[in-house]
Design brief:
By secondary structure, this protein is mainly alpha-helical. The chain has helices at 9-38, 42-81, 83-110, 112-119, 129-140, 143-159, 164-188, 195-215, 218-223, 237-267, 274-309, 313-340, 342-350, 357-371, 374-389, 394-417, 424-448, 454-488, 499-525, 529-544, and strands at 493-494, 497-498. A two-stranded antiparallel sheet has the order 1-2. The longest helix is centred in the N-terminal third of the chain and has 40 residues, at 42-81.
Amino acid sequence: MPDPQKPSTAKSATKIMAAVFGSRILGLVREMVLSFVFGASRELDALKVAFRIPNLLRDLFAEGALSAAFVTTFSQKMATEGKESALRLANLVFNILVVSLSLICLLGILFSGPLVHLIAPGFAETAGKLALTVKLTQIMFPFILFAALAALYMGLLNSLGSFGLPASASMAFNIISIVAGGAIAWCFDPTFQDKEKCVTGFAIGVLLGGLAQWAAQIPRARKFGFRFTWIFDLQDSGLKKILFLMIPAIVGAAAVQVNVLVSTYFATGFGNGAVTWLDNAFRLMQMPIGMFGVAISTVMLPSVSRSAALNNLDEFKHSIQEGLRYMLLLAIPSSVGLALMATPIIGALFQHGAYHSADTAQTATLLRYYSIGLIGYSAIKVLAPTFYALNKVWTPVRISISGILLNILLNYCFIRVFNLGLYSLPLSISIVALLNSFQLWFWLYRLIGNPFDKTFFISLAKILAATFVMAGMVYMLNWLFADTLSVWLHDVHVGIFKGQGIAYIIQAFVISGIGAATYFGSAWLLKLDEAQRIYRTLTTKFFKR
């Protein structure tokens, strides 16, 4: 039976989803600003690849491996040894991170040239593109240190029951990177005509944003009793366990990130704009994952870690089933909605300034292929941490390695044999994500038995039914109004927004809003328990305020 003292998944996950929603919106604003200023150009391609290198290391060593290993160990130490011992462990990890990642940043700056050439060999074919990417990489490499410290503080606060502020801290990153980046770019060139100087300003803004994301969490951590102490104890059992868990966690987290890196490698050979199209589509696909996949897994991990430490298998299974039900409630309609609304969504967000209709068409098609794997991505976020709680850390590792190899094979076949071009990259990643999620479920079933009761399958049937109703409504509205809006608004200009772009904005917001209302209305009428809990949580907060 569930622990009555434990915060509900619905309440905690809703807090995180609200915070992450704000952060993702600001992230989209940042990408819109960059697309407006630079378009799908060599400068924006260079910025995205340059950021991908430190961002990859952040995802592998910091937010991915560190979060899973630290939260698991910290929560178990809290449950068995108390808060003081757990906070001492947090200090040990902080000191190790500062020393080791400072060294990695120094090496990364020194060897940026070979790294960029390895990851983006196609850039060498465009004059100055490779050199610009190296320069931007050197500027942004220290981002990994700030992001790792932010991830550590986030794991600390999550383990102590604080979810909203850590999730909101990434909003500080986006705000500072937009404002500071734009201001520095303006200082370099007030006309924004020298694209290389401007893109350098935005690269410096990214670095400052990473620092702000960490700094925003320091006051709350101090309130919970965390005080920095410069101590080293490499023999500490908790530290050893974190390091032991991080090794397989790094490989486990590598599946998605290395697959993205493989996609970047191939995309650099498709000319200017390809990396930007691919990155914008991937960002749109990640938005729902960040909102509910990460939110649910963040709430679940401390719970399943405590349950595993106390050998409470019933609570462990309940947490898994509850997390997956909430994930499917949001992932299934999001996947279908992104596929149906890809063109108006991309057009509304990006088709302004230097980003043209041809760029929108390419990005929308890529987004449709990415949407195929959205459910798989979300399921991985929920299922993978359970293996760390069970101390079966090498199971996700084996699955990740097989996924990387399969992705490379599929990319080769789709590009060389079937001639799918750039569309091969999101299609192969989506297939791998779905297969990896199924493998995680299969091995979890082998370890703990069936975590699902009949209520899970009843909920799944209701989710599918509500999604079908929503899809029908969205398809009909697109068929009725898409072309009409484009004709009516063809010659309309409102500031930076022009005819087709305005039509896309109206289409995206109105039809998506009606589609969401149709889905949740259908879920409510079908008495879907998860939808009703979220509704009660939101309305309770609203009326309290």
